[in-house]
Amino acid sequence: MPQTNRSHPTPVELGDATIAALNGAGGADAAVIAPVTLSSVAFAEPFSTEGYGAVIFQVTANVSGNTIVVQGSNDGGTTWINIPFRLADAATLGSFLSLAGSPGAALIIPSIVMPRMRWGLTAQSGGNTTVAVGLKRGVDQNTLTAFISNTVGVSALAVTFWNESTTALTAGATFTGTSRDTGATAGSGTFGNRAYFNAFAFADQAGNVRIEVSNDNSTWRRATADQAVAANTPVTLSIPVMTRHHRVVYVNGGTNQGAFMCNTSYSAA
User: What is the pLDDT of residues 39-72, one digit of tens each?
Assistant: First the structure.
């Protein structure tokens, strides 16, 4: 077995006073997991997101032959799924499942926060990769950014998420997620962490996923087309909030599933 050189993740709580000194506004606690360095194909120690609404990974060192992935688990770390993510860089658009070779200070923002998360290398060419992790509570978007050095104008995602289901579906079966409520009526105002509704789906057999919306929690309309989900390939959908109620619908294909995961969330961006 190749030797893995990795430092130990050490959470460090930042109180309101520290945050206020960093960005001029306190109010939400944050934590930093000290940088971890990997020198082989391996994963850093997983961490719990309990009590936190946003997670961001800061890549401080990487080489072109090293490929970074971010994973999440709903079942305490037994089953891990690659999570799509975006980069906090206006010039880099789109969603990614891996990052191969990046400059220092690259910021990875997962599309969804899961109860346990980790990062790791699925390919390694001989050099080291170092990543620090930041977590924050609350919905203000400046707290997390404050302790990420050399970063300007980066907004961390404030997220409220739900584990909809991990029960495998039979051939042709449909899963309909729980109705999620923004708590707002038309024209009543805005909610900072509920600007977008997101749905995440993974299965070991092909199927389709979509988002549905409702004004009254009774009459439901499709807000997205059915998105094909290939076997063992995660898919994330996201729409701006324009109705009070939202839900995810997943339709399995013609083969019984052995594994299934579906999550939803409201987020600020």
Answer: 899 999 998 887 777 788 888 787 777 888 899 9
Residues 6+ apart with CB under 8 A from 177: 162, 164, 165, 199, 247, 248, 249, 250, 262, 264
Q: What is the DSSP letter of 96?
A: B
* Look-up of token digits 């996201």: 238
DSSP letter (8 states) at residue 182: -
pTM of the model: 0.50
Candidates 6, 37, 43; CA nearest to 119 is 43
Residue in the structure block whose two tokens are 């306190």: 26
Mean predicted lDDT score pLDDT of the chain: 76
Element (H or E) spanning 222, and its range?
A: strand 221-222
Q: What is the pLDDT of residue 4?
A: 37
CB 38 within 8 A of CB 121: yes
Strands 245-252 and 180-181: antiparallel
Band of the pLDDT at 140, cuts 50, 70, 90? very low
Q: d(Cα 136, Cα 94) in Å, to the nearest integer?
A: 24
Q: Are 252 and 142 in contact (CB under 8 A)?
A: no
